[in-house]
């Protein structure tokens, strides 16, 4: 009879418990499902160490990275899977494209989604891939139009630049009554300059004519459903009017929009912060170039506000102090807490 306390039992044999990759992988999946991401990452990596030849492990870890918005890390893993295990893992192309789309790298996203559909036209993600491709083509067309508009701007007279700079100063400093007549002139003189219309609605709203501003934006959006300017303005207008359900509808749209142009990216970040989505706003602000936006009061105002609301006091104070040094308007507000 086996006696566990008998060290001399010649029949006693120690059978080691060999932990394999699947064991840690199952633990990682459970942690992921519970949204305990730190533990999930730890165990996914351990599974990969024990079984580096199983492509399922890095693919699942990439999905986790996508979930926590670490898109670059996700794509590094997926690219390595394609390099190490071959083209039969075509799903990686779809996952890579999805990450690139979140990063605003639409050309890279489109290239990978087309590769996926070429290799797996009836694949597991075929329907989602087709929808993503349609969206990317739509955005690319819009960006081309914006570039054409920009080319037109550079060919215009210096007078337009003077108008732009003057309006920009008034809007950034909340001088709505001063901005409105200038914007009216711009709309008459430069009807192809679309931004002036949306700036006019913005100034009109904050000057007190809220309903008229909303009506204008709704009218313009009906003619251009994908106008980022209209979506941003309406999201903020409805939020400030207490119509949260309407505001959230536009915010949901903005969550999936990643423009190339810095000005539009800033507008989206501001809209997210304005409507209280500080975590999403902070993420967008991180991808903006401060060097290109130092003249924007709104950049410092809403970036610092977002950081403050997320408990990043040191960063918020640094941004606020720099903003106050550059823009006396922020000094009038006084403290970040007063931003609204």
UniProtKB/TrEMBL annotation:
Keyword Nucleotide-binding belongs to the record: no
- List the InterPro entries: TPR-like_helical_dom_sf, TPR_2, TPR_rpt
Answer whether the UniProt record assigns the keyword Repeat to this protein. Answer: yes
Q: Where are the TPR repeats?
A: 21-54
> What keywords would UniProt list here?
Repeat, TPR repeat
A Pfam family name for this chain?
A: TPR_19
Give the protein's recorded name: Tetratricopeptide (TPR) repeat protein
